[in-house]
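[audit] Reproducing an earlier prediction to check determinism. Same input, same settings, fresh worker. If the tokens differ from the archived copy the diff job will pick it up downstream; this log only records the rerun itself.
[audit] input (163 residues):
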Amino acid sequence: MRIGEKIAIARELHARWADSLLKDPAISRGVRDLMARTESSRKSSVEAGVSEVCRRCDEEEGGSCCGIGLEDRYTPEMLLLNLLLGSSLPDSRQSDNSCHFLGAGGCMLAARDIICINYLCARLCGAITKEGLKGLQETTGREMEAVFVLHDRIRRILRCKTE
């Protein structure tokens, strides 16, 4: 399924089920928890120097690890989760060689796929101190856990509602 189709499905699901999903205590708690964990993870990323290394690589090397096709990892439910978190889903990509969700300021999604959260290229691994890497892994681990739990809960609820 193409990304445009997944985005359309996510928007339909959001229009139909957002209010109901957000009334679920586990979902509303999970949304708040994921927002806090994502903020902590992104702050650790900046502090460890990841953001700066990625920005320089994108400018100097003419691209980033957030390449075309990475968006294929996203399910309509994961995109729905992003809509619940307040992200907007772009109708078109900003660069022909980049992920559909990569914008001028980085990733436009609040809830990212595990590979997007966890991947560190060789350049990053060489640039981050052991302490920085440890802190980054701790915070990204908590973010990945929150994404998994919330995504799973949404999938189970939607499965029940649509059967």
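[audit] rerun output stored. Observation attached for the diff report: The radius of gyration is 16 Å.
[audit] end
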